Amino acid sequence: MKTYKLAHTDLEVSRIAFGTWHLGGSWDKTPASQDIKDRANTLITTAYEHGINHIDLADIYTLGKSDEVVGYALKQNPGLREKLVLQEKAGIVIGSDQDYRQPGRYDYSFDHLVGVVEGSLKRLGTDHVDLLAFHRPDALVEPEEVARAAEHLHKNGMVRFFGVSNHSPMQIELLKKYIDFPLVVNQLELNLLHSYMISNGVLVNQTAAVYANTQSVLEYCRLNDITVQAWSPVAGGQLFDPKEDAPENVRAVAKLIAEMAEAKNTTKEAIALAWLLRHPAGIQPILGTHKAERITDSVKADDVVLERTEWYSLLEAARGASVP
User: Fold this and answer.
1) Number of domains in the chain
2) Taking a C-beta distance cutoff of 8 angstroms, is the pair 147, 174 a contact?
3) Quick one: which H or E segment has residue 114?
4) Is residue 279 in a domain?
5) d(Cα 64, Cα 116) in Å, to the nearest integer?
């Protein structure tokens, strides 16, 4: 698979990454079963064998069990850790429905960020992660605290590089004022059905350009050498098998994807992901699947090049409207 060189780092990452959102099984305290551990091992191994070397994690994913099962996979494959780029995310705290004193929240305090990384490293069975992304903006962020945590984690060899997730340009600027390290990734929801960051770029001065905080995100990241990572890159599968009562635009773009896949002798997953890869920002889709065959179908996107006309046809179908 072709790779991206992450600016301001020595990291060469696959153009497609593998995400671990549900990899650990249930979102409760039930320990991961052996079947779930074996499935994680199969998926991580399959991803690597198909050229994916970038694994995206977060401490909250299945309440830490995603970290654990990735750690299990690393133990089963001696030497694999050194071949992978592990990316952790921190900052979200899952609340309790039974205790109003423990609401869902964001926490960028020094103690929380450092504690999250220490816990994740233990679960992963490694002494460092290559990237740490601050997961969702903390409304109570004190950037000096974030900077102190980043300095501590880097100085002690626990984190090599840093990034963000779900951040706007100004939120990144605020962090950059205090953090001495470059922020090299920004992970955001982006797919054909959630294309606002792209669509708003062609809707300047149009009333349709109303989605919050999307204006100029891609341009800002390109100007500042920040790799945009796309979470939910295939819209949860809606692009492949829409329900009968799905909106007209969803059914239209699904139909077009199927037609293009057949014409190009490839998979529907490859077409949907190739739409993201075609963008000159160097977008990195993050796969989320429990099926090895979906990985195989998805990595074929690396060999698909969409013509400009094809790219815009997909955008128009997904938007349910032509570009102005």
Assistant:
1) 1
2) no
3) helix 110-124
4) no
5) 10
List the structure tokens of 216.
């100029």
Task: For residue 257, give the H/E element and its range.
Answer: helix 248-263
Q: Measured between alpha carbons, how far is 257 from 276 in angstroms, rounded to an integer?
A: 13
Which residues are catalytic, by number? Answer: 61
**Residue 36: strand, helix, or coil:** helix
Domain range enclosing 96: 3-189
In a domain, 141, yes or no: yes
Angle at the Cα of 236 from the Cα atoms of 235 and 239, rounded to 5 degrees = 55
Residue 183 sits in a domain whose CATH number is 3.20.20.100
Q: State CA 77 to chain mean position distance.
A: 24
Structural domain contains residue 103: yes
Task: Tell me, yes or no, if the pTM score tops 0.70.
Answer: yes
In a domain, 162, yes or no: yes
In this predicted model, what pLDDT tens digit does every residue of 137-159 receive, in sequence order? 999 999 999 999 999 999 999 99
Phi, psi for 259 (deg, rounded to 5): -65, -45
Residue 30 corresponds to which tokens in the numbers above? 């039930």
- Measured over the CA atoms of residue 111, residue 115, residue 118 and residue 121, the dihedral's sign is negative
